[in-house]
Amino acid sequence: MLETNLKSLPFLHRGKVRDLYAVGDDKLLVV
Predict the structure, then answer these.
(1) What pTM value is reported for the model?
(2) How many domains does the chain have?
(3) Long-range pairs for 8-11 at CB < 8 Å and ≥24 separation?
(4) pLDDT tens string 1-31
(5) What pLDDT is attached to residue 1?
(6) Beta bridge partners of 15
(7) How far apart are CA 6 and CA 4, in angstroms?
(8) Which is it for the CA torsion 21, 13, 27, 24, positive or negative?
(9) What distance separates the 2 farthest-apart alpha carbons in the chain?
(10) The 11-14 sheet, strands edge to edge
(11) CB burial class (10 A; 0-12, 13-18, 19+) of residue 10?
(12) Which residues face 19 on adjacent strands?
């Protein structure tokens, strides 16, 4: 997997190794 694309969550940031998505106001999903 080279990059993620989760359409159901707001995308925040793409780094070298992981992508960050917002899950609610105070939680992040790190992929």
Answers:
(1) 0.81
(2) 1
(3) none
(4) 888 999 999 999 999 999 999 999 999 999 9
(5) 83
(6) none
(7) 6
(8) negative
(9) 27
(10) 11-14, 19-22, 28-30
(11) exposed
(12) 14
Amino acid at 15: G
Nearby residues of 8 by Cβ (< 8 Å), 6 or more positions away: none
3-state helix, strand, coil in the chain (%, to 5): 0, 35, 65
Rounded Cα distance between 28 and 10, Å, is: 10
Domain limits at 3?
A: 1-31
Q: What is the DSSP letter of 29?
A: E
Q: CA 4 to CA 26: how far, in whole Å? A: 21
Q: Which amino acid is at 19?
A: D
